[in-house]
Amino acid sequence: MVKNKPGIFLLIGVLSCIISIKGWASNSGKPVPEVQKKGCLSYYDEKRKGFVYLTADEMPHFPGGTDSIQHYVRNFMMAPICLEFENSLFVQFIVETDGQLSNITIVSPKVPSLQSIQSSVVAAFKHLNHWKPAVCKDKKIPVRMLVAIKLYD
């Protein structure tokens, strides 16, 4: 009778994790996320036919930071905001190598009664094209970002 040996299962789990990180395992013939030399984590995006990064040596940033983004989005909307909505909207996008934004979407919450507000937030983000792009190994790279936007004070 063979006894369970937790050390073996731990070793198998660690090895499968290393294999996945190195990109040796595949998903539909495409590599899974891989770690670049300086810690820049990326994945292959089928639609873009290229890699999009999740981390970088220098992450992208908007001049003035998050407060500046919040201020711009609120001013852009110019419509009174539903005071009953006290949560943040999470906006996901890609900062391209030239500082432009693409693939702008509201991730959560998706509330039908707030569809016009969500559309206004996406429209505001389409005008936020002055980002400093991310850098990995001294090269500008596209990075996926997630920003929480508070629609109330």
Write up this protein.
With about 150 residues, this protein is of the alpha+beta class. The chain folds into 2 domains: about 1-25; about 65-150, Fusion Protein Consisting Of Minor Coat Protein, Glycine Rich Linker, Tola, And A His Tag, Chain: A, Domain 2, CATH 3.30.1150. It has 3 helices and 10 strands; from the N terminus they run H-E-E-E-E-E-H-E-E-H-E-E-E. The protein has helices spanning about 5-20, 65-75, 115-125, and strands at about 25, 30, 35, 40-45, 50-55, 90-95, 100-110, 135, 140, 145-150. The strands form 4 sheets. The protein has a 3-stranded antiparallel β-sheet. The protein has a 3-stranded antiparallel β-sheet with strand order 7-6-10, with helices on one face. It has a two-stranded antiparallel sheet with strand order 1-2. Helix 2 (about 65-75) crosses helix 3 (about 115-125).
